[in-house]
Amino acid sequence: MKTVSSLFNSKIECPVCESTIEYTKVRSKSIRLIKQDTDFCPWYEGENPVLYEAVICPECGYGSHVTTFENINRYEKAKLKEKITPRWKKRSFTGQRTIEKALEAFKIVLMNLIAMEANKSEIAKICLRIAWLYRYKNDKEQEKRFLNYALKNYKLAFHSEDLSQGKFDEYVCMFIVGELSRRLGKLDESSQWFSRLITCYADPKQKHRISSRLIETTRDLIQEIKDAKANQYNEEATSA
Ligand SMILES: [Zn+2]
Q: Where do the CATH 1.25.40 domains begin and end in the chain?
C-alpha cells in the first residue's frame, strides 16, 4: 500500500528579497484535533500544524506567521534589511519539523516582529505559540516565561490597538488576558478580566459580538478560580 505523506511543500514569493521560496504545510485531510486547552492550545493526533505556522525565508531571514507572510509594508521591509538580513545565515526550514526546529523558526519570527516594531497583538500571538511548543515538550519553566511575555503584550494590545476587526477582537483579548493571568497564578487579576467580559455580555449592545461558548468557558473558569481560592484559604487555615 502506498502511504501518502501528511506534509507537502508550497511556493511563495518572499516580499522582502523577492526570492521564490518553499515552505511546508500539513495536508488538511491529515489534521486530527483531539482537544484544545482553555488558552486555545490545540492537541493533535499525528502531525501538528502549529509547528509549521512560522514561515521563514531561507534567503534573507524574513519570517512571519503563515497567515500574515505577505502583509508587510515598506517601513517594515527597510527595518528587516537593516537589522535581520545582514546577520542572516542561510538555512532551510522545509520538511518535517521537530518541536526544536519549530521553536527555532518561531523565535526567528519573534526577532523579526521586534525588529520591525510590529503590533503588540502579533508579538503576543507568537509568544503564546512558543509557550504552547514548550507545553508540548513539558518544559514548564519556559512555558511560563513565554506565557508571561504573551500576557504583557496582550495587555498592551488591549489598551493601545484597535481590535474591532477580525476574529481576535477585544472580547477574545479580554478572555485571553484573564486566562493567561489565571495560568500564571494571578487569580485576582484574572477574575477582574473575566468579570469585565461577563459585564460586556450583559450589555445588549455588545452581547451579539461575543460568542456564547466563550462566555460558558469564562463562567467555568471563574468557578475554578473561586474553588482554587477556597482551597488556598483552607490550606492556610489548617497549616496555621
Ligand atoms: Zn526573503
A: 1-157
CA of 10 to the centre of ligand 1 (A): 15
Report, in this order, helix, strand and coil percent for the chain, each rounded to 5. Answer: 60, 10, 30
DSSP code for 19: -
With CA atoms as reference, report the closest residue to 192 among 181, 183, 201, 184.
Answer: 181
CATH number for the region 1-157 comes to: 1.25.40
Distance 166 CA to ligand 1 centre (A): 27
What is the 56 CA–ligand 1 centroid distance (Å)? 8
Q: What is the Å distance from ligand 1's center to 5 Cα?
A: 27
Number of neighbouring beta carbons within 10 Å of residue 209: 13
Cα torsion angle, 31, 126, 171, 186, sign: positive
Q: How far is the CA of 21 from the centre of ligand 1 (A)?
A: 8
- DSSP letters along 75-101, please? HHHHHHHHHTGGGPPP----S---HHH
CA 45, CA 124: separation in Å to the nearest integer?
26
pLDDT tens per residue across span 186-222: 999 999 999 999 999 999 999 999 999 999 999 999 9
- Model pTM score: 0.94
Angle formed at CA 210 by CA 191 and CA 150, multiple of 5 degrees: 55
Contact in structure between 90 and 14 (CB atoms under 8 Å): no
